[in-house]
Amino acid sequence: MFVIIYDFGTSNVKTCLFDMNSEIRLAASTTASYGLRISEDGGAEQDTEEWWAALCTTTRKLLEQMDIRPEEIQGLAFCSQMQGAVFVDENGNALRAPMNYLDQRGVKEYRDCMGTGIIKVSGCSLYKLLRNLLVNYAGSTSAKDPVWKYKWVENNEPEVFQKLYKWLDIGDYLTARCTGRIVRTADTAFATFLYDTRKGREGWNKGLLDMYKVRSEHMPEIVACTDLVGGLTERAAKELGLAEGTPVFGGGGDTTFVNLGAGCVRPGDTLIYVGTSGWVSTCMDHQTADINAMITGVLSAKRGCFNYFAELETAGKCFEWVMDHIALDEVGIYLEHLKVTDVEQKYLSLYDYLSEEVSKVPPGANGVIFTPWLHGNRCPFEDTKAGGIFFNLRINNGKRDMIRAVLEGICYHLRWLLECESRKVQTSDPIRFVGGGSLSHVTCQILADITGRTIETVDNAQQVGAVGAALAVAASIQGIDMVELSNRYVKAKRTYTPDARNKEVYERNYKVFKKLYKANAKSFRALNS
User: Fold this and answer.
1) What angle do CA 352, 355, 358 make, to 5 degrees?
2) Is the per-residue pLDDT at 264 higher than 80?
3) Which pLDDT score, from 0 to 100, does residue 339 have?
4) What residues does 298 pair with on adjacent strands?
5) CA 437, 310, 307, 193 torsion-angle sign
6) Which of 28, 257, 306, 393 has its CB 3.0 to 4.6 Å from that of 468, i.e. a possible disulfide?
7) DSSP letters for 443-469
């Protein structure tokens, strides 16, 4: 059985063909990139036509690469970035450029709503937070949350808002474009914090819609990630190079499927993901929340299960930044010398090279510490003004120290998130490490040393969200429980144990790392307001 999963990230799509027979096998994959426009006013937008062109190009290449007939594809779904906003008309056409999850223009809207009231928690109205918590154990504590994108468009682009039919997340828009059916999956609905998770009451909550002044007619029908949404339309099939009527399933967000694809499906199983962003996620059979640390239990792919989720806004993005702005000019590697045209392979080659280079630097990066807040931060503190710091540079430090400090800084922050999670839930040892960051043995060992936990990696680590989506689709087609499939197919590939010799230096640096935000918060605001 062949299924196609579109692993739709912040800057590129990886189109994956999975062979789902006696095992789950990534038979082939192709990648294409698209733009992300960051504006000075906090905007972060993308282009629907760039998205669609990338889907069409990669799908056709995939079929050519495998010499497979379109009729052999038994299903497809999207595993996509979350908390974006696509506003569509009755035909599913986008009314404006989609707003990426990084978009933070809704600061005024957020403050006008959540900043009111006498009693506040984390700067938010206690009354409104409690109403949210009673409904779904969550609440909007960030100007980047989707509801403020919706409100920003309402306040700043009335001509767009007047035409608005439905408000979608990114994967939902792409599903609608494939099928002609406009729906939201439950996980992306939850990510708006307007969804009721209470048993027997699942769906849009009228009280929350009224509180945030969101129009109920703008909220789409909700489906499960395993539901059959429809078949490919004639037009979509022709453009993609697939067969008309190919089943399209609900799919969902990357955070929804990563736990499933990593094999973290039992209560307490914990994973760490490092891609463009980074997060710590622990599987639960109940919900809880830590508003002070901005952590909550988000919906998982399996009904009745949740992932206790803490996010670092820029993780792998920090390493991409350091490759572009620090490494390429002086560490002895240049893009033209790589002789690699594929964008993803180019960065994998750079990552491998730089991992080898930083392994020459001792743990602790010779005293240099980096804060990975290049686009603000969300957990365990929310501050859109926070920035990156190279702290404690001295005359004897070089660029290799700085590059290692970036990797260590990402791992320090992930440890911070892990400790915050451990205050509320039981986290596991070992921890599964997935995403592009887990491809480096050096990073895996640094993570083990800094967290003090055993680290496990799995096959297809970069496509782990797509693996989870493929398991969900296969489970739906075959009528099998997706958790059973995950336990059957996803096994640990390699294990890294903490090196006790490095504990002292990492403990020292970590203590300093945690103090850097409070020590610099006022300065961040002064510089970045």
Assistant:
1) 155
2) yes
3) 52
4) 307
5) negative
6) 257
7) HHHHHHHHH-S-EEEETTGGGHHHHHH
Distance CA 197, CA 145 (A): 18
What distances in angstroms separate CA 363 from CA 279, 391, 408, 510, one per listed residue? 23, 16, 9, 12
Q: What SS3 class is residue 99?
A: strand
Determine how β-strand 183-185 pairs with β-strand 203-204: unpaired
Calculate the alpha carbon distances from 370 to 86, 389, 417, 502, 513 in Å.
Answer: 34, 5, 16, 18, 8
pLDDT at 343: 43
Under the banding of pLDDT at 50, 70 and 90, the label for residue 345 is low
What's the pLDDT at 351?
A: 76
d(C-alpha 259, C-alpha 281), whole Å: 7
Q: What are the structure tokens assigned to 251, written together?
A: 């799919």
Distance separating alpha carbons of residues 26 and 17, to the nearest angstrom: 6
Q: What are the tokens at 507? A: 């403990």
Quick one: which of 96, 75, 71 has its CA closest to 6?
Answer: 75
Find the DSSP H helices in 180-302: 186-190, 206-211, 234-240, 254-262
- The DSSP line for 196-209 is E-STT--EE-HHHH
Q: What gap in Å lies between CA 177 and CA 170, rounded to an integer?
A: 11
**Cα distance between residue 240 and residue 76, in whole Å:** 12
Residue pair 92/124 in contact by the 8 Å Cβ criterion: no
CA quadruple 523, 524, 528, 529: dihedral positive or negative?
negative
Please report, as a single letter, which amino acid is at residue 255: T
Q: What b-and-e string marks burial along 415-441, b requiring 16 or more CB atoms within 10 Å of the CB?
A: bbbbbbbeebbebbebbbbbbbbbbbe
Backbone angles phi, psi at 190, to 5 degrees: -60, -35
pLDDT of residue 424: 93
Q: pLDDT, tens digit, for every residue of 4-21?
A: 999 998 888 999 999 988
The two structure tokens encoding residue 422? 């451990």
Alpha helices in 67-125 (DSSP H): 107-114
Confirm if 169 and 86 have CB atoms less than 8 A apart. yes
